[in-house]
Amino acid sequence: MAALPLLATPLRVGDPGDYVLGLASEGASSLLVAATSGGSVVAVDLGGGAPTPVPLGRHGGGVSGVLVAPDGRIITCSLDGTVGVWDRRTSGAGGPAAR
């Protein structure tokens, strides 16, 4: 099987040296959420124009899992032992709704 071409330039979604540990999307929407080894939770809108990573917040350790719930909340779990619930609709840039 031949290698597939990249459809866009790769994006940096965390601090230099971070690894992307998880990705989640919101159904048919253009939202993509990335979780990094440095603790960052980053949203990217892939719907038209140049995709720009928007930091939603951080955990104290690497983010090992991320899920976009049907109601739009973003749920993350971290190696620091916490679970974050992020509501980008009511938290401005997307700060945690609860932790």
Explain what the structure shows.
By secondary structure, the protein is mainly beta. It has a single domain, classed as Thrombin, subunit H. Helix content is 0%, strand content 42%. The chain has no helices and eight strands. The protein has strands spanning 20-25, 31-36, 40-45, 53-58, 63-68, 74-78, 83-86, 96-98. The relative contact order is 0.18.
Task: Give the SSE map.
Elements: E1 20-25, E2 31-36, E3 40-45, E4 53-58, E5 63-68, E6 74-78, E7 83-86, E8 96-98
Antiparallel strand pairs: 1-2, 2-3, 3-4, 5-6, 6-7, 7-8
CATH topology: Thrombin, subunit H
Mind summarizing the main beta sheet? 4 strands, antiparallel
Span between termini: 44 Å
Give me the count of strands.
Answer: 8
Low-confidence regions: none
Number of domains: 1
Using the 3D structure, state the CATH architecture. Beta Barrel
Spatial order of strands in the largest sheet: 1-2-3-4
Content of β-strand = 35-45%
Cα shape: globular
Protein structure class:
mainly beta
Tally of alpha and pi helices: 0
Task: Note the run of SSEs as H and E.
Answer: EEEEEEEE
Radius of gyration: 14 Å
- Output mean pLDDT: 83
What is the share of helical residues?
under 10%
CATH class: Mainly Beta
Question: Can you describe this structure in just a few lines?
Answer:
This protein is an all-beta fold. It contains no helices and 8 strands.
